[in-house]
Design a protein that fits this description.
The chain has 12 helices and 9 strands. The protein is α+β, with helices and mostly antiparallel strands. Helix 1 runs parallel beside helix 4 (65-101).
Length: 368
């Protein structure tokens, strides 16, 4: 520093005075607490503006120095007080603003948690499980992808049996045949099961008599889709195998079931039917749920609705299950779950049930 640049006591005084003035203007302009803190270090920090002014103190007359020092301290104190006051004001109004904006209404009701429910077909399945459980049936499930041998042969339908036409199925393609442009059924006979009946065979192999099982599950058929048919649907099969099982047991069981599911006043009847895996076979009807039996469009004017097929297990089927037909007899029945669901809720079209439209499905909460 050259002598003529040495600050004089007067110049230091006026610098301090200027600092005091500009500081109070800048403080007033600081919009929030962060701004004030930044200003605090700009003014009073270790290399802040006040410190910079005081660096010139060494060049001032020794007699003047204490006075300038006093003035600097007074300015520092004043600024600190002004900073604290400004901070208090700003913090106060920030709190006020938050209190004003962030209202919490303690009386507001909580947000509703949306809980889903079972698909109507699944709640029918649950009810069936519960009903048959009370009669000593256990649930036994089998695979949706089956073999032709299980789905047909073991159920007394050899390869050329005409009854196979009733259950035309969806074939799993032989690996590679689709890519080769020549799709053909898998050589090992893998298909999608057309009914839950093959699970009878699996249950007989897995369990020893007495056997009482129900076998709920998904089935598939090569089917044109309309209001009452789909290529994918649900069945529940029932199987009982014991020493002295009779057609009377079957009848009693199904009548119990019909009354529990369709009401005490439901009338029932057995009609002769045909299934390759039962002998004798029957169709089981209930009095029409729409007209009560007088005849209407829903029951084809007959007054009756067929709800399942049933019969005494064919000896060939018992044998396929590894059970001696001379020692044991059994009865079996099979029903479509979707049909029960349609009847329960008076839904006119199966496609509504199988679609995934929640606006429709959420109208049918679980339970009967
Ligand atoms: N599997 C038959 C079907 O899908 C239904 C059926 C009929 C099952 C008679 C049975 C039975 O167990 O005994 O059409």
């Amino acid at each position: 520093m050259t002598p003529d640049q040495q600050p004089t006591a007067d110049s230091l005084r006026s610098q301090l005075e200027a600092l005091r003035l500009s500081a109070s203007e800048r403080l007033a302009a600081a919009a929030d607490a962060d701004g004030v803190e930044a200003l605090r270090s700009a003014l009073l920090g270790r290399s802040g503006e006040l410190t910079v002014v005081l660096r010139g103190l060494g060049g001032v007359d020794a007699a003047e120095r204490p006075k300038i020092g006093q003035l600097a301290n007074a300015v520092r104190e004043e600024l600190e007080a002004a900073i604290s006051a400004r901070l208090e004001v700003l913090r106060g109004s920030e709190l006020e603003a938050r209190l004003a904006n962030e209202t919490i209404d303690m009386t507001a009701p909580g947000r509703e948690v949306r809980i889903g429910h079972l698909h109507p077909t699944m709640s029918v399945e649950r009810d069936l499980r519960e009903f048959f459980h009370a009669f000593g049936f256990e649930v036994f499930e089998g695979p949706e992808i089956e073999t032709e041998a299980m789905n047909f042969e073991a159920l007394n339908m050899p390869p050329d049996h005409p009854a196979r036409d009733l259950w035309d199925t969806l074939y799993v393609a032989e690996p590679g045949s689709v890519d080769a442009g020549e799709p053909r059924p898998a050589e090992d006979g893998t298909i999608l099961r057309t009914h839950t009946s093959p699970v009878q065979i699996r249950a007989m192999h897995a369990l020893r008599p007495p056997i009482r099982v129900i076998t709920p599950g998904r089935c598939f058929r090569y089917e044109a889709v309309d209001a009452s048919h789909n290529f994918e649907f649900f069945q529940v099969e029932g199987l009982v195998v014991d020493h002295a099982t009779s057609l009377a047991d079957l009848k009693g069981m199904l009548e119990e079931f019909a009354r529990a599911f369709y009401g005490e006043g439901t009338r029932t009847r057995f009609r002769p039917g045909y299934y390759p895996f039962t002998e004798p076979s029957a169709a089981f009807d209930i009095s029409c749920l729409v007209c009560g039996g007088s005849g209407c469009a829903a029951c084809g004017r007959s007054g009756w609705m067929t709800i399942l097929g049933a019969g005494m297990v064919h000896p060939a089927v018992l044998r396929a299950g590894g059970i001696d037909p001379d020692e044991y007899q059994g009865y079996a029945f099979g029903m479509g779950l979707d049909r029960i669901t349609l009847l329960r809720h008076a839904i006119p079209d199966l496609r509504l049930l199988m679609g995934a439209d929640l606006r429709f499905l959420s109208q049918f909460p679980a339970g009967r």
